[in-house]
Amino acid sequence: MDHEQLLFDLKNAPSLKLMRREHAALITSFLYRVFKGTQVVAIPLNELIERLDSYLDYLNEANPGLYPLAATAYIKQWSSEEYQLLRVVSRGDEPTVELTAEAERAIGWVEERYRRTFVSTESRLRSIVLLLEEIIAKHRGCTGAVTTA
């Protein structure tokens, strides 16, 4: 990894900029839920707006005013040149929305982070179980030796 390249990427790469944004949790969780959680590549714009509106209502119910913009404003922002997370494609009558490669990359990093935590936890649990089985086996061996002697 080159220092200068990292400085440039941290300043300019949309996927890295996303992680520093004020509403990174909203953006990442919503895009993951809609695209990755349902395994779709594209979604009609109107449906995406409705789903984000519902998600915003849900989040703002617990924390009023946390996300003050309307769903359409967020979608417009996320598809802007500055954010570069969504691509609005006009096919036929209704426009559809797709994730950009940068959004895919950012979501992938977050997925990997959570996957690693789970694997690490699972690995630790497996080690504990193996140690307990070893202790039990040794204890049985000691108990058996004392009883037969």
Question: Mind explaining what this structure looks like?
Answer:
There is one protein chain. With 149 residues, this protein is mainly alpha-helical. The protein contains 6 helices and 3 strands; from the N terminus they run αααβααββα. It starts with a helix and ends with a helix.
Summarize the structure in short:
This protein is mainly alpha-helical. 70% of the residues lie in helices and 10% in strands. It has helices spanning 3-12, 14-20, 24-36, 45-62, 71-78, 101-148; strands at residues 42-44, 86-91, 94-99.
Keywords:
149 residues, 6 helices, three-stranded antiparallel β-sheet, single chain, 10% strand, mainly alpha, Arc Repressor Mutant, subunit A
